[in-house]
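Worked problem 6 (solution included).
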Amino acid sequence: MKKTTYLFLFALSTIWFSCSDPNKEAKVAEIISTVKATHAPDKRIALWEITFENGLLKGETNLPDALKELVGQMEANGIPYQNQVNILPDKELGDKTLALVTISVANIRSQPKHSAELATQALLGTPLNVLKQEGSWYLVQTPEGYISWVDAAGIALKSTEEMAAWTEAEKLVYTEMLGVLFSKPDLTQLPVSDLTAGNMLKHLGEEGNFYLVELPDGRKGYVSQDETLPYVSWLASRELSDENLIATAKRMMGVPYLWGGTSPKGVDCSGFTKTVFFLNGMIIPRDASQQVNEGQEVDTTKNWENLEVGDLLFFGVPAAEDKPERVVHVGMWIGDQSFIHSRGRVRISSFDPNDENYDEYELNRYLRTKRIRHSTGDKLWKVNSLIH
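Solution. The predicted structure is:
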């Protein structure tokens, strides 16, 4: 018996030390890093938090194919392991792995607490992928891929079947920049919710000059027919024309700067360009450092004659021998040597020294201009992908 026990302990210790071999752990760390560089180079839109220690592969990811590639490479290198990686969505969510935003603008934060940095926002009716829960917060992924935390009070969890029912229902889109959903078909009645441009509402009926609508959490109210369009009509009317882009952008003049903001209530620089394009039918990446990677480059030399309305101008710090280029700001060209952007507030700036809006500060940190409105790609979508 003693000999059998000894042999068992010897075999166990051999496995233990083999698994905790620093060389093997270094090799696995290299594989993890390589797979991350391929599948999850941007942590804002992909979750890849995986470690390997003492033979245990631990952590979490929302990329099952990338995890499959990782363990395949480990097996090919003869590295034994126990796979304890949690693949999101978390199983504890059950069938509620989808959600709809239920308030005019949901704040989505970098950590599961109200004091955390505002990462982005999502409008009422926006579908979200739900990854996991922590207390009263949910880790969600927005249609443009952003992964951050939202308070449970701002969303309604949905199963696949429930989301399909919402998708198939007749909907309206709110078209004014700001407004109110009323408890009765009367502008003097109490509000059910505030509204903002791009909010999507389930159409239930009509009463006088009002539509009866339902929010994703079941609340009902009345909205003026003059301030909405049927979703199908709204979608058909979306066009990235010069006139539409300029008109939408100028309707947001004076809107305050808000770090993480992507709505007419408040926007940061990239949230402004994202909102302008969304309200005209295109979903583009969230941040300036992501937007700069899309479309066709049309200028790097301040030759403004190359630019067209809707082109995105990027500003920041040029690349140096020891540092890459750093994009920190973005604006949209509106012609006549002028662009519109959110800095302090939504404003128009000019590169014409004789113009009252001349902006020497932005001129001095100009980097390049990209054209995205005629482009396609896996990070550029039409708005109908929100519904279908």
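Discussion: Residues 5-19 have pLDDT under 50 and may be disordered.
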